[in-house]
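Q: I have two molecules that I believe assemble together. Could you output structure tokens for the complex as a whole instead of separate predictions?
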Amino acid sequence: TALNNRHGKRHGKKSKSRCSRKALHVNFKELGWDDWIIAPLDYEAHHCEGVCDFPLRSHLEPTNHAIIQTLMNSMDPNSTPPSCCVPTKLSPISILYIDSGNNVVYKQYEDMVVEQCGCR
Amino acid sequence: FQSAAIISPSAPRRHRGARISHQDGQRSSVFLKDIFASSHPSGVHHKEDLKEAVVPHDYMLSIYRTYSAAEKLGLNASLFLSSKSANTITSFVDRGTALQDDLLHSPLRRQKYLFDVSTLSDKEELVGAELRIFRRSPGDLQASLPTAGPYDIQVYPCHSDRLLDSRSLDPLDSAKAGWEVLDVWEMFKVYRQHHHQPHLKENQLCLQLRVTLGKSDTEVDLRRLGLDRKGRPQREKAILVAYTRSKKRENLFNEMKENISSRKEEAGVLGEKVAKRGVKGEGPRRRRR
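A: Yes, here they are, computed for all two components at once.
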């Protein structure tokens, strides 16, 4: 049976949260892009954070490889790191910007917002 | 669609990681007043070294607002008819001037519209192109027109008499201001085939406009239909709108690189003039991290 990481946890150590989607507010003005981006000047991108430990939740849609890797890590943490908490579904945003010819351009950029996170 | 005006109070600085809730779908906090300020005559004299200010046309703002709202509803914007399944829509502003109109004999029978399309990527598939011209309300000028229409607005390539598109304008509409939209995709396709030479720096596209009485060949004075270009603000200038679709995923860094290099070119020109100043808002364009 796989070692259940929970028992191995040292007391007092803050338990790391499970893989989930967290807020990440992007401000193009702070990136210094506001002189060519007209809109939006900020947006909610989200990001994925947390541990992929045994047992993996089904909503994290693990690949078979991630399941194997997590099992191996649970049995022997030195054999392999746990699988990674990454975006599994992304969505686009529209950006209105000024191109190098001073023209106003509307463009849809794919993969700009994290919709779901999972273990891979 | 309503024309979009994306203005929101300057948002307070947010703390990193704080969960931010937005009432409406709009994440944008576009400081349009900055854009107008820099394009406003009184605003330009102290920014003479900034390149000519860019003011987005209402059409581009409404495109942005419509499609970003659709994204928030999880709809695929390219399914919208008006997007012609494009994922990039570029607006080129007319470089023709009122001077050219004046040089022609009066009354004004024909107008030439000039567009610099050199930044249009030839790697993207062109799925549509249209010429959008703002017709101002002619006021009493129209009273002196021979008859009250209908009129036929026609657009040609400058160097040929092959009609690209025409649309009729009925008397009632001709008395009110409004945007006329003509399809010039055909010409753009031909143009791209023949001008597919990236080294050509000056990729100018030239279109000619005339208005006749109905289907006759009697040309009408364009001034009397509110089509003269004297004193037009940036947002009322004609635009050529190109709809393109790129197969590969758009990479933000392309634009970044392009903009950085074009700013560097410009900074090179401005460098010696403004380097010493460095006072906030007056020095060279902020270096992007």
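A: One point stands out. The two ends of chain A are 22 Å apart (CA to CA).
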